[in-house]
Specification:
The protein has 5 helices and 3 strands. It is α+β, with helices and mostly antiparallel strands.
C-alpha cells in the first residue's frame, strides 16, 4: 500500500455527498459546476444544496483533499475553481473501490445477478 493510500484510508468511509463532490473535482470546477455535474451524473437523483456543497468544500480544503486552482468569470460573476489534490484523488479512488466491493457483497448476499436494477 502506498503512502497516499495509507493517508487516504483515515478519511473512509465518505458520505455520498462528499464522494460525489470529490469525484466531480477530478477536473477543476467551481461550486455551481460541481452541483450541476453531480446532478447530471446521477441522472437527477443527487442534488447538492448550496449549504451542503460550500460546507463540504470548506472542510475538504482544510483536510487538504482539494485546493483552489484559480478563478473564472461567468455571467459577470467571479467563481473560485477547485480541484483534487493527490491525497484527494487517492481518497476518491479508495472510496470508489470500497463501494464496488460493497456492491459485490450485496449481490452475493441477496442473490442478485446482473444490472443495476437487479435484473
Amino acid at each position: 500500500m502506498s503512502t497516499i493510500e495509507r493517508k487516504a484510508q483515515k478519511f473512509l468511509p465518505l458520505t455520498e455527498a462528499t464522494f460525489c463532490i470529490l469525484a466531480a473535482l477530478a477536473e477543476p470546477r467551481h461550486g455551481y459546476g460541481v452541483m450541476q455535474r453531480v446532478e447530471l451524473a446521477s441522472r437527477g437523483r443527487i442534488k447538492l444544496g448550496p449549504g451542503t456543497l460550500y460546507g463540504a468544500l470548506t472542510k475538504l480544503l482544510q483536510q487538504d483533499l482539494i485546493v483552489r486552482t484559480g478563478e473564472t468569470e461567468e455571467g459577470g460573476e467571479r467563481r473560485k475553481l477547485y480541484v483534487l489534490t493527490e491525497l484527494g484523488r487517492g481518497v476518491a479512488r479508495l472510496e470508489h473501490r470500497r463501494l464496488v466491493e460493497m456492491v459485490v457483497v450485496g449481490r452475493e448476499l441477496l442473490g442478485i445477478e446482473g444490472g443495476l436494477n437487479g435484473d
